[in-house]
Design brief:
Arc Repressor Mutant, subunit A; Immunoglobulin-like
């Protein structure tokens, strides 16, 4: 009886202690979840494309200053354009110092600065392995192409996740080095079709004394086969569908001009998506003409136009 009272009292003490600790433990877990799920105030995203190009996107917080200097990761490809905007997507004036690889931005009445450009100086390819090396003054997020296999990385990432089947790694500020192997999706998803065998229906055909269950009728054991007539009809249908598809594609592709094909080829080269302003800097045509071309490609099902940060982002659907 005494042992039962002591045990009951100890359980009460344990529950009382848990009641006191529970609020603090809950606050700690909520704080931990907040730090894991929230992005930092300043970060840079590096999206590695299949061609080895890297799209660099800065998101920076401005602290009441009119002139802002930023160290760039890699050397920007000026032919593909550099986009610098404020928090509302309005363009900002800037100047690039190629000697120090920095950009000076005139940021008046801004709370955030967004910088976007392409570079190919931070990736190398050797013996089937891609390497990515850079130094970032702020936290960085690396998005690898679909079908990539990570081989090595330094330092240990702050977080690892996936986005649309892309491997995403978050690193602290400083030097980052990683290597990966890339296998195109069209190759990695190929699978060998298993061979099929005709289904055979097996049923007993005789009794225990050997007499037939259904004299004068065919055996119950049979194999399903296709007659020559059935095969001929199926081949005719496939031939007709192939001819119709050929003329449909020929008619649809015949509506594309050289300028339309140039836009499609540019989107393929840049990983399947670009802002309209970036396309305009490359194809060198008036803004209204470019927009008509993009709308035409969207109506034909080649591209899709999305609003990203108040700007038109053109995504390639097929080619």
């Amino acid at each position: 009886m005494l042992f039962i009272l002591i045990t009951f009292k100890s359980h009460l003490c344990f529950l009382d202690n848990m009641r006191r600790v529970a609020p603090a433990l809950l606050v700690f877990l909520l704080a931990l979840a907040y730090t894991v799920t929230c992005l930092p105030d300043e970060y840079v995203t590096l999206t590695v494309l299949e061609s080895g190009l890297v799209r660099v996107d800065y998101s920076l917080k401005v602290n009441a200053t009119s002139i802002y200097d930023v160290s760039l990761i890699g050397t920007p490809i000026t032919e593909l354009g550099i986009i610098v905007t404020d928090q509302s997507g309005n363009p900002l004036a800037y100047d690039i110092n190629q000697t120090s690889n920095t950009i000076t931005i005139l940021a008046l009445n801004c709370t955030r600065i967004n910088i976007s450009y392409y570079t190919q100086t931070i990736t190398t390819f050797s013996k089937g392995i891609w390497s990515l090396q850079y130094n970032s003054p702020i936290e960085s997020i690396v998005k690898l192409p679909k079908g990539s296999t990570l081989i090595s990385m330094q330092p240990v990432p702050l977080a690892v996740s996936t986005s649309d089947s892309n491997l995403v790694l978050e690193f602290p500020s400083g030097s980052v080095s990683l290597s990966f192997a890339y296998i195109p999706q069209s190759i990695s998803q190929d699978k060998t079709t298993p061979q099929t065998t005709p289904q055979v229906n097996k049923q007993p055909a005789s009794t225990q004394n050997g007499s037939s269950l259904a004299p004068g009728k065919p055996s119950q054991t049979s194999t399903q086969i296709f007659s020559a007539e059935t095969i001929g009809i199926a081949l005719a249908i496939l031939l007709f569908a192939g001819i119709a598809m050929f003329y449909l594609l020929k008619r649809r592709n015949g509506n594309l001009s050289e300028e339309d094909r140039e836009i499609i080829e540019l989107l393929k080269k840049m990983g399947g998506g670009m802002f309209q302003s970036e396309i305009g800097q490359y194809v060198k045509m008036p803004t209204t003409t470019l927009w008509r071309r993009i709308k035409k490609l969207q109506e034909l099902g080649y591209v899709k136009v999305e609003k990203v940060g108040g700007k038109n982002y053109v995504r390639l659907l097929r080619y």
